[in-house]
Amino acid sequence: MRRPKSKDFRKQQRISEESEIELLKSWIESQKPESGSNPMSLPPLPKNAPVGRVDDTAFSRYAGVGRFEQLPLSKKTKDGLRAAKFVSMTEIQRASLPHALCGRDILGAAKTGSGKTLAFIIPVLETLYRERWGPEDGVGSIIISPTRELAGQLFDVLKSVGKFHNFSAGLLIGGRKDVDMEKERVNELNILICTPGRLLQHMDETPNFECSQMQVLVLDEADRILDSGFKKELNAIISQLPKRRQTLLFSATQTKSIQDLARLSLKDPEYLSVHEESVTATPTLLKQIVMEVALDQKLNMLWSFIKTHLQSKILVFLSSCKQVKFVFEAFKKLHPGIPLKCLHGRMKQERRMAIYSEFCEKRSVLFSTDVAARGLDFNKAVDWVVQVDCPENVASYIHRVGRTARYKSVGKSVLFLLPSEMQMFEKLKAAKVPVHFNKPKKELVQPVSTLLASLLVKYPDLQHRAQRAFVTYLRSIHIQKDKEIFDVMKLPIDEYSASLGLPMTPKIRFLNQKIKSKGALAKTILDEPQHQKEENELKISQKKLDSSDSEGEETENDLLLAADNPKEEGKASEDAEIMPATRILKKKKLKINVHRPLGTRVVFDDEGHTLPPLARIADTQSGKESLLLDPEQKAEYYRKMREDLKKADKEDKLLERQRRREKRIKQKMKWKEGNMDEDDDVSGSESDKATARPNKKSKVYFDSDSDDGERNEVTGKGAIGAGSVSLEEQEALALKLLNSMHSS
Length: 744
Ligand SMILES: Nc1ncnc2c1ncn2[C@@H]1O[C@H](COP(=O)(O)OP(=O)(O)OP(=O)(O)O)[C@@H](O)[C@H]1O
Known about the structure:
Blueprint: H1 2-30, H2 75-83, H3 91-101, E1 106-109, H4 116-130, E2 141-144, H5 148-161, E3 169-172, H6 179-185, E4 191-194, H7 196-205, E5 216-220, H8 222-226, H9 231-239, E6 246-251, E7 270-273, E8 286-292, H10 298-307, E9 314-317, H11 321-333, E10 340-343, H12 349-361, E11 365-368, E12 384-387, H13 394-401, E13 411-417, H14 423-430, E14 435-438, H15 449-458, H16 460-478, H17 493-499, H18 509-521, H19 528-545, H20 566-591, E15 603-604, E16 610-611, E17 617-618, E18 625-626, H21 631-680, H22 686-690, E19 701-702, H23 727-743
Parallel strand pairs: 1-6, 1-7, 2-4, 2-5, 3-4, 3-19, 5-6, 8-13, 8-14, 9-11, 9-12, 10-11, 12-13
Antiparallel strand pairs: 15-16, 17-18
Protein name: ATP-dependent RNA helicase
Region (Disordered): 28-49, 526-574, 646-726
Function: RNA helicase.
């Protein structure tokens, strides 16, 4: 008796889903500009606005809409939102959802903690639902996050809001070991939430990894992903995505780089900055304090702050992993009376995730690098954000303090500024950040430096950590871009060293050099080559300092102590902070062929070693290889080769797309037929029916938890391409390319 009921129910459900999809589609159609409707965001919600009926044809009827229920969303999404207790929309959701649901590209900006995540998760679910996306359709949406923790958080939101949908979703982030398992399953996934490095690794290494049908691309913390730190990865990713897609970019801070829209080929994007007119750039319930603290007093201040806030949940930002490690280890040994934790980009991934979850749940102090600066929600319950080291710019400040006072909760923050950094205070005020200046109460300061000195004597390891912390701090100041604020020459380094408990001030090569050059030239302006070098150092080291996707064991030789041999000195400075990254870049160059410009050939010598591209060029007349030394000849040859390959590539892609489309349609037809038959067959068992479209019902929430194979700019672990393409395969590829050249 129950079986026919369940069959009817399913049939009914399918019919209602189909008509729902048709309704949603007709609504989208009605929103196209040529239909005469006005593509606008919803006007500000009037107080006590009446809750109106959902009308799927007239966009203007959405004026006054403030609840998700009133939007033209699928029942499954609405159920998911209701189950997660999301009822009313936040401002950015009201402003962007109508546009995003219509398939428009979006540049969304809104304060931290204002609900930007749902503003892109909902359109992703809806678009795939309307397209009747199924397992055989592969990757339908890619959501990119700059950090692993944030990716994990987005994955949780997707799982909760999308739990009534049948899509499969995967979390692809670095630091996880079982990359092979990921490779096997990645093609079954419909929604990928990933960090740029891991996504690119799959694009490079996973056989048949396919995203040519992808519909929606999302960049969360878009300004960060678009900045120089991820430039290479992002460009390589974009080059492999279909041009016909919807692109959604969200961030609390819009920078110039986000207007670098050409890279993303946005189509008439809607720029929605809901808080632009707001009096403040930070959440209104956030109380912000700035204190002037001398460098040698910073740890005393921090210690005193923790000791006087033992009942609070505190997030402390420091500028490098080594500082985080030292302060964490040292304070832990002093037992302040509140649990201490630390988080930085060089921890093992499992540990990182565990620390993040523990901090969400428990009152404690978390010492962190900027790895925790963006996007993380921490269950809304961080009481204090303490910035011990000055952020690199105003945007960075806004994201850091944004870890508290999220959604409708209150929060407080304090920023320690050195006397030489007080310019930052002015910059914050100019950027509409309501900061109040407070003087520290000297009588409340509990000195910790003497305690540290005795700890360092007792624990030589800790002394080593202190030295590293000292050097990396100075270095972090040295490489900062904003020289108006950050001037390493103004720092009282001996006092600072003593404040860490160090018996002697470590020597620092780059500082000594700078002092020398300052003395000799009587000026601080660096000469051109040196300046250039520093710019480069800045780019690489910056990436490392706030590295989100880098991890592994730290390098041992980064103390940058003065060496006797000047040559060695030079090497030491590069080796210490910069070499690891450069080394990996070289490795990548050797191993990744996919991202070379189209038409660049890989040529092998007799022993199978690759020669630099274009070192040798095949002589198309004789079929032999010859050296083309004439640059014009080379350029012409290169141009032709590129054109040919581009053409061939285009044709291949077109064919492949057609093939997939046909396959998809066939599968759908089959599925439909199968289902109709099945419905007519009353005697069919439940299990038989479930196999009519086997994967459709099986929701794969795939959160692989392992691997250190993600690109690691710092340590060199898990460089892309390692071992993924055998020599034979490379040779075969090269031969194929050569043949196609010859035949053309
Ligand atoms: N419509 C809503 N109703 C209730 N709570 C919401 C709603 N939208 C979002 N939230 C909650 O607000 C908090 C902040 O949301 P979210 O993390 O999306 O902010 P954000 O704007 O992305 O912040 P950031 O800029 O820091 O990344 C979360 O705890 C989320 O659950």
